[in-house]
Amino acid sequence: MTGAHSGGCRVDQRTAARPSRPTPRGAAAASGPVPTIFGSHPHHTTSSRRHDSLTSNSSIRHRNSSLLSVTRVEAEEVLPSSWFDDQLADTYRRLRMPRGLLERLAGIRERRGWAGGSSFDDGAARAGRAALEQAGVAPEQIGLLINGSVTRDNFEPAVAVGIHHALGLPRHALNFDMTNACLGFVNGITVASSMIDAGAIDYALIVCGEDPSPWHETALRMLNRPDSTRDEVLTQFATLTLGSGAAAAVIGRADRHPEGHRILGSVSRAGTEHKDLCIGGDAGQGMATDATGLLTHGLKLVTDAWEEAHREGWDWTDMDAYVTHQISTSHTNAIVDAVGIDRDRIPLTFPYWGNVAAAALPMTLALQAETLEPGQRVLCMGVGSGLNTGLMEIAW
């Protein structure tokens, strides 16, 4: 994704209707400090990474990191899926394809776009400012800023530098982008938590802002050519599910913040043989996606990570909330069926926000946080093109 919302799409300014959120169920409070682990098994206690041919997961347990705040910024304009149907009406007629595919197949009624004068990096800065305020942490206390967004206006400098400047962060605060498709924000939390565990920093700010509007415009131009094909419609389908938004989180030392939400650890797994299933170029090139391949291989990657994590000693079968990357109805149904989790414990935001790339999971977590209670357990289930997955447990 590149650039800010260009205003080329007609939007509905009304407030989006939202489905009811599930009420999390109670659970026992998490136990005390857990040692940091880099490597393949929970019993590893060194800070160096170890390879073990018996497992394909990377497992990390954090000993002193907590989530102090998580915030979201919803882009101002509502862009209904029916608007895309209107723009593609002639193409659908020519190819004998029905209207309403985005809502019927993906379950996405609408997504958001930035209003004139707003942009993805403005949104990330607004989310970051709100996260600092919510956490009660001053800008000068931040030792690390990570921007996890896919969207960028230019190859350099990093998006993070503009957000660092906008928030008035100190000169000593390390700042950089961490891009890993839709998994960037989750990866950022892992890196920040590890640096806090190591004693390198006391506080970190993770931010993310997304704006897919240039890809929307490229996809519409491509599909409205007189020679566009059904296959091209399917290749661009995922592009039209994307939405705009921003999120931020403050991570701090658990021993200084007993009120914080303990980040217990995470499991990650790579499936990079599938690197060509979703490729996004600049605004002119757009994004091409093998949606069926992503669903099939992404689901296997997540379930393999899940099953191996349980053999390693993790237990995620009865979490109070499962905050997943927000893609579509079919993806949600597939993960529910594959690992046997309670559908009512999965908050859904894609029907009204669409797939907000790396901001989708933290925005959903920020919404779910409004109903979470101390002692409840949350599993963040991230996945990104490449393919990579990350499963992170937080004790609320």
TrEMBL record:
Query: Which keywords does the record carry?
Result: Acyltransferase, Transferase
Tell me the first and last residues of the signal peptide.
none
PANTHER family this protein is in?
3-OXOACYL-[ACYL-CARRIER-PROTEIN] SYNTHASE 3, ACYL-COA:ACYL-COA ALKYLTRANSFERASE
- Can you name this protein? 3-oxoacyl-ACP synthase III
**Single GO molecular-function term?**
3-oxoacyl-[acyl-carrier-protein] synthase activity
- Specify the Beta-ketoacyl-[acyl-carrier-protein] synthase III N-terminal domain's residue ranges: 176-268
Q: What is the lineage of its organism?
A: Bacteria, Bacillati, Actinomycetota, Actinomycetes, Micrococcales
Q: Where is this region: Disordered?
A: 1-60
Q: Where is the Beta-ketoacyl-[acyl-carrier-protein] synthase III C-terminal domain?
A: 310-395
Where are the bilayer-spanning segments?
A: none
Say yes or no: keyword Phosphoprotein present: no
InterPro entries named in the record: ACP_syn_III_C (IPR013747), ACP_syn_III_N (IPR013751), Thiolase-like (IPR016039)
Name the residue ranges with Low complexity bias: 14-33
GO BP: fatty acid biosynthetic process; secondary metabolite biosynthetic process
